[in-house]
Specification:
The protein is mostly beta strands. The chain has no helices and 39 strands.
Amino acid sequence: MGTVVKLWDEERNLLRSEKFPLSENSAVFTLDGDLPWNTQFTLQTFAMEHEGDRTDAEDLFSGVALTAPVNVTVTHTVENDTLTVGLEWEDAIVVDGYTADQGLSIDGMGTVVKLWDEESNLLRSEKVLLSENSAVFTLDGDLPWNTQFTLQTFAMEHEGDNSDAEDLFSRVALTAPVDILVEYLVIDDTLTAQISWAHSVQDVFSGLHTSIDLWDGDTIINTTTLPHTENSISCALGSPVSWHTRFTLQTTAMHTKGGQTGFHQIFGGFRLSPPGDISVKHSYRNGVLTAIVTWENAIEEQFVGLQTILNLVIDDGRTKRSENNEGQRTLFISYEETEASFKSSELPWNTKFTLQSAVGDNRGPESEPLNLFSGVDLDPPGDISVTPEVVDEALTAVISWNNPNVFEDMTGPPVKIKLWDETEEGEMELIEEIIIPNDENQIRISLDEGYPWQTKFSLQADFGSIKGIESAYVDLFNHMQLTPPTNITITANQSTSEVEWSHSLELGQ
């Protein structure tokens, strides 16, 4: 007689039967390949070949709870440009004689680490002995950035409950690039923006990229992805990149998008400074006053598309732009040119102008408005004087003046002399106009030429399209005092008397 212990699988197939004498009341079984985790046992008393009733079937091994590991820690390190994730945990199973911190192991039992994609598809499964409570994974093409992991305790082919899924790599924050800088240079006559940045991810690694999106309005027109070893890109002005194109930078890892910067202008930081050292000089030739505008370019290096715009302004109101060169009020000038000329016969006297640099339709700030012509002195000639002389026994008035409008090129407008006769009613009637070249400042007018004694004259500069301010009326002859003779002597005889005198009127010879 004795006790028979029978082991059964979950389908009630007998796996093993062992008999023990009545003097023994215990049995030991080891988890191995012949005995599955779900093995159950029953006890019966036997006598010779006869067996009594069975006890209720009970679990042999699975009474041990395969509790998921606890106190999981995740550590990220970068070595040799490779992102490595280290997992560590503590086993939570309770088995007599087993203590997790003693480095012991149980045959057939351990921890299974499972890696999952975003759609909960199993990517990889690795089993680790109970004596080992860690695992290491590296970022590569087989594991996406958003890979998650779970931990389970296993016993043979049976697995316990999953731990909560946790991020494997994406705990590393893919923060947006920082310290964005845009610098400009001219390459092959083309304005080029050099965009640079710094990574805000603390430790960069293979698989980390920067995505540069170029935007036209709300539309992406180009995307460039660079590895973490590069932190700059060049953008040349020209199709498809325009002056108004913007860019954003975004950190990515294994095709997963991270933080993105705000919008930045590619060429918005390039200052289209207006020309400086602007000067206006004048010249008078062939009866026309010409304003010669010169300037110095503020942008040192020229490039394709850069030009100077000269705006003509009248009465502080911008004239409408015309595409027709004739009468055009907005001039587009090659940036190589630094001079423009304008004739007073073609523009109003009060015309002003401004200068600005431009690229296409994009214009920089304007210079301060300056006068084209109205800076010219319209005052009449100064220091007007009349000196009487006797020339060939004729009383002659010598008129002289100083001309204020002698330009740098030694040209200037002529002076117009108007001769006037004052009527008895006090009105002035024009007798004659005389044009005197700019290089002369004197004229002689003889009384014998038939001009009345009361003739007056006025002076003004003649700019052609506009006349200068006329001077006040000045007496030509009438300012002379006709004093009577002096030292009169009379010598008389019986038939005649001789009268002699001295002239008191003193005139230049």
